Amino acid sequence: MRDMGATSPQHVAIIMDGNGRWARMRGMPRTLGHKAGLEAVRRVVRCAGDCGITTLTLYAFSSENWARPPQEVRELMALLRLFIRKDLAELEANGIHVKILGRRDNLQADIKRLVQEAEDRTKHNDRLTLNVAFNYGGRDEIARAVDVLIRQRLAEPAKLGHGVTPEEISNVLDTRGQSDPDLVIRTSGEKRLSNFLTWQCAYSEFVFQDVYWPDYDETHLRDAIAEYMDRDRRFGGLSAVEKADIAL
Ligand code: FPP
Predict the structure, then answer these.
(1) Residues annotated catalytic, as ranges
(2) What pLDDT score was predicted for residue 165?
(3) Measured distance CA(84)–CA(91) in Å, rounded
(4) pTM above 0.85, yes or no
(5) How far is the CA of 121 from the centre of ligand 1 (A)?
(6) Which residues of the chain have pLDDT under 50?
(7) Cα separations in angstroms, 103 against 37, 51, 100, 178
(8) How many Å lie between the centroid of ligand 1 and the Cα of residue 19?
(9) Pocket test for ligand 1, best of 15, 34, 81, 101 (most atoms within 8 A of CB)
(10) Which of 46, 51, 40 is nearest to 12 (CA)?
(11) Is 213 in a helix, a strand, or coil?
C-alpha cells in the first residue's frame, strides 16, 4: 500500500541562495544578483497564495551577512528599503500581512521606521503572512527569547520553581503565534540550514533545488511543493501505513 503523502504545505520558508553565482556567471557584480533576486521575491510572493501557502518566510539578510563587503551590505539594506517603499501598497492591497523577523536594535533608524510602518499597515491582513527574515539568525533569536524568559521570571519570582517549556520558548520567538514551517526550500544546490529558523525547523521537510534564486519562479515553487507532498511526515511517530498495519 502506498502512503497518501502530506497535505499541501501551509508554511513555506525559503533560503534564497545563489544570487552571487548568478551574477558571476553573467560577468556582473554580486549586487546585481541581489537586485535580480528581489524580482524573484516579487514573483514568489505574487503566486504564493495560489499555491495554497498561508505563511511564506524569506531569508533576506542573516546576522552573519554583516561580514560581507560593506558595499554589498549597503546594497542589501537598500533593497529592503526599496521593497518596502515600492511594494508596500501592493502588499497591503493584496491582503498580505508583513512581518520582519530578526534583531532591530542595530538597524539604521530609517529602516527601523520602514519595518514598523510595513508591519503596522498590514497587521489586519490575513490572506498571506509574509515573514522577511532580515538581520536574522536562529541562534540570536533563541538567545533573545531566553533573555525575555529570564526577565519574565525575575518579574514573577513565583514562576522560578517551574521548568521552561518548549511552548514558552515558541511564544517569545519572532514567529510567535505562527505555525512552524512545513517545508524549507534552499536554492542553488547548497544543502545547509545556515542558522535559519533553528528552533522552528525541528520537523520541517527540506527540498534542495538546483536553481539560482534570481531564476526562481512559480514552476520551481510548484515542483518543491509536489516533492513535499510525496513525503511521509511522522513527527517522531509512525507513518499512516505503519499505523494501518498495526490496526490490522
Ligand atoms: C544569498 O545568495 C542571498 C542573500 C544573502 C540575500 C538575499 C536577498 C535578496 C533575494 C534580495 C533582497 C530581498 C528582500 C526581500 C529585501 P549569495 O549572495 O550568498 O549567493 P552566492 O552563494 O552565489 O554567493
Answers:
(1) 17, 65
(2) 95
(3) 9
(4) yes
(5) 26
(6) 1-4
(7) 22, 30, 9, 18
(8) 5
(9) 34
(10) 51
(11) helix
